[in-house]
Amino acid sequence: xxxxxxxxxxxxxxxxxxxxxxxxxxxxxxxxxxxxxxxxxxxxxxxxxxxxxxxxxxxxxxxxxxxxxxxxxxxxxxxxxxxxxxxxxxxxxxxxxxxxxxxxxxxxxxxxxxxxxxxxxxxxxxxxxxxxxxxxxxxxxxxxxxxxxxxxxxxxxxxxxxxxxxxxxxxxxxxxxxxxxxxxxxxxxxxxxxxxxxxxxxxxxxxxxxxxxxxxxxxxxxxxxxxxxxxx
Length: 232
Prior knowledge:
Elements: E1 2-5, E2 10-13, H1 20-25, H2 36-39, H3 43-50, E3 54-56, E4 70-77, E5 83-91, H4 100-122, E6 127-130, E7 143-146, E8 151-155, H5 157-163, H6 167-172, E9 174-175, H7 181-197, H8 202-209, H9 213-222
C-alpha cells in the first residue's frame, strides 16, 4: 500500500517485508515518480490524471516493465476539493481479477475516511453537514462545514460538485442549507442508509459517513433518529 502526493511520488508505504525487494525493484517505494507523464498508463498516475477510483491490471500498464503489477488506486482530495494525492494497493501476484470489486471498495472507503478526517481537522470549530451521497464521485464524501452564523465556510469535492460551489461562492458567503426541511430530510436519509448498511452498528455507520461515533450520535438526536430504535 502506497500513499502518494499530488505528483505521484510515494511518501509512505506499508507492505510485507518479504516482498520489499520486488517492490523496490519495480519502483513501488518512497521517492519514486509514478506520474502518467513519466510512466504512461499506470494506477497512480492515471488515477491522479482522471481523479477517479480505478484499477490497472498487469498488461494494461503502458511500460512492459510494469506488467507484473495489478494496482487499485483512489484519489485523495484536500479540504478545498483539490487533488492532494492517491492511495494505492499494488500486488505482484497473478489471478486477482476476481477481487477487483472488493479491493476497490476497501481502497475507496479508506480514501473517504482520510478525506473526511482531514476536512474535519481543517474546520475544527464548524458544524459538519452531510449531503446526500449520489455516488457521482465515489472517492469523496459530500460534506459542508458551517460556522456559528450558519454560513458555509468549507465544502468537500463531492459537495462542491453536487451544489456547484466554487472558491468564489464560498468566499462571498453561502447560507447553510441544512436549516431547510428538505436538507434535513436528505441528511436523515443519508444517516439511515449508513445505519442500515452497518446493521445498526453506530461505529461502523460513522466510519461509512466519515464521522466520529460521538458526532453521529449527536446527529441521531438532532435528526430525531435515536428515539425508540436499537443501535449498538
